[in-house]
Amino acid sequence: MASPRVSVIIASTRPHRIGHQVAQWVLDAVPADLHVTVHDLREIGLPFLDEPGQPADGHYAHEHTRQWSAKMLATDALVLVMPEYNRGYNAALKNAIDYLYAEWEGLPVGCVGYGWHGASYAKSALRQTLERVKMTVVDGPGLAFGKTLTQEGVVSAGHEDDQALAAMFEELRAKARTKVPTVAHD
Length: 186
Description:
By secondary structure, the chain is of the alpha/beta class. It has helices at about 20-30, 40-45, 65-75, 90-100, 120-130, 160-175, and strands spanning about 5-10, 35-40, 75-85, 110-115, 135-140, 140-145.
């Protein structure tokens, strides 16, 4: 059996962000038998949802949507490295989710949040969206400013966070998608 393909998405698009540093902490913990690809929403640069049809139809008019779809169809599990802004998750992440539909069904996803309360509010709000698009949500760690993370992005996570990250990867491996959904891609 092939190694599960895991995509790590850096959700923050801010000019002065620490998401890539948190993502590096995540990447350093990836088990050797997982194949990992990193997708940075800032580099992908999806415009605000501009598809004329419904994402559930899978008929995409724009090349950027077809490329985004192909990236998500090429993954068996997903890790979202996401900030908490004003007790919610960021708009770029919501936009990236809203572009697709069938691509998400059955895809296991772990959320590694960071913010003042370990992104607990954002992770809770995001869970509702992820479950609505039929993703399988796996618990992931939350890094808190002043405790396990500096505002400059230095991660000083302890044993508990490292264990939570390892457990998330084990659950993602166990639940990895084995069948790729069919999408029209006109």
